[in-house]
Amino acid sequence: MAEQNNQQDQQENLSELIKVRHQKLTELQENGKDPFQITKYDVTAHSNEVKEKFDEFEGKEVTIAGRIMSKRVMGKASFCNLSDRYGNIQSYVARDSIGEDSYKDFKKYDIGDIVGIKGEVFKTKTGEISIHASEVVLLTKSLQILPEKFHGLKDTDVRYRQRYIDLIVNTEVRDTFMKRSAIIREIRNYLDGKDFIEVETPVLVPMAGGAAAKPFTTHHNSLDEDLNLRISLELYLKRLIVGGLERVYEIGRVFRNEGLSVRHNPEFTLLELYQAFTDYHGMMDLVEELFRTVAVKVLGTSQISYDGVEIDLAKPFERLTMIDAVKKYAGVDFNEIKTVEEAKKVAKEHHVEFEERHKYGDIINLFFEEFCEEKLEQPTFIMDHPVDISPLAKRKPENPEFTERFELFITKREMANAFSELNDPIDQRGRFMAQEELFAAGDEEANHCDDDFLCALEYGMPPTGGIGIGIDRFVMLLTDSAAIRDVLLFPTMKSLEK
């Protein structure tokens, strides 16, 4: 009861403080000083460059703009701390420097107000780089109360729902999203430098294929047809390989109607690229170099730390077949197990749960998920997946029950998925038919038969390597973020009305 009364008192106090801010705005407007009438402010410098290049800026006049995060009023002179895009900087504001009327206004400004400051760069007696203000202009009046300074915004639900507050008060969050932008930029730079071209493919598709996932569906009123949000970029990009573009990539949102977790969000950003005349070994070389290059460009090093574990992207990534990984970590050698009946018997002995519809390759994958994934902290390519779980990958010529496919694991998470792409239209049709049977048997994530894609393959697709990389997980890795929501500006959240 005491806690409830305390929360009620806090709400009433907040309401009073908000009311005071509205009154201040009204007073400003009545005196012809409405900040919302100001349309621009010429900024000549940001906090970080003033600090980093102090020798160049010392004694020079600059104009900066940002949000007041703290303020100390001391009679005829005050200090305020301003936060802008790149950090924060102190400003010394004196009555004799900005004028009596302006100083009187400044003293009424609130934490959260956005101001522009013109002044000379100097260093205080304590050695802090600051701006000696000659002008302070109120650019925006904040009518809400920022979270209390020392406790900050720690409620994760509020942080994700009101990301704008999170970005204001948590500078490390702002840094994460600045790095996210840099990561995507460096991915593009790397691929463009390898002669890939960036393309865009449809988001609304009649058939959502290219991955094992349940799609979101919608209805197009004008066409009077049901459509799906794409779950993958694959099948349209491969059509472009057929068309002769040879090296293509797309970075785009995909949508999967699945649950929420620290690793999953229903909409996420995917990079897919396809390169003609190479195979999955070429894709391994490319993705290894890509991860290493982007880390060095963004972080300045290929040695990174994730959740207290040191990850070395400089070393050659380990390469293990899925069969060998299961043998290494589960002690079961599927080279000695030849039938689905034997596989299911071994699964029961090792308490690996499976469904009756599962085939030989599914059982191997279940063993891998159960015993191996948790062991793969350092960069590891898991290769040569069973054909039963790889409907779009080319078979290994010497062992057609397995495919030329790999997944890259780092920090126990799948970071990339790649194939030597299946370009045999007859084999592909058979695989689609097998997927249709799985769907009919209750597998809602099974692929459907895409006749137009098969038609494209019949015109001829060259030998091709392809790869998909989850951008959000890559960002998590390079920013040491624990959950996917920490690297999505606006993650999917359940409505507060439900």
TrEMBL record:
EC identifiers of the protein: 6.1.1.6
Catalytic activity: tRNA(Lys) + L-lysine + ATP = L-lysyl-tRNA(Lys) + AMP + diphosphate
PROSITE patterns noted in UniProt: AA_TRNA_LIGASE_II
Required cofactor(s): Mg(2+)
Main location: cytoplasm
Highest taxon in the source lineage: Bacteria
Residues that coordinate or bind Mg(2+) 1: E407, E414
Residues given in the record as Mg(2+) 2 binding sites: E414
GO process annotations (BP): lysyl-tRNA aminoacylation
Signal sequence interval, chain numbering: none
Coiled coil regions in record: none
Free-text cofactor note: Binds 3 Mg(2+) ions per subunit.
UniProt GO MF annotations: ATP binding; catalytic activity, acting on a protein; lysine-tRNA ligase activity; magnesium ion binding; transferase activity; tRNA binding
Annotated Aminoacyl-transfer RNA synthetases class-II family profile domain residues: 180-491
Keywords, sorted A to Z: Aminoacyl-tRNA synthetase, ATP-binding, Cytoplasm, Ligase, Magnesium, Metal-binding, Nucleotide-binding, Protein biosynthesis
CC annotations in GO: cytosol
Enzyme class: ligase
Pfam families: tRNA-synt_2, tRNA_anti-codon
Subcellular localization(s) per the UniProt record: Cytoplasm
Assembly and binders: Homodimer.
Record-stated family: Belongs to the class-II aminoacyl-tRNA synthetase family.
Protein name (Swiss-Prot/TrEMBL): Lysine--tRNA ligase
Gene field: lysS
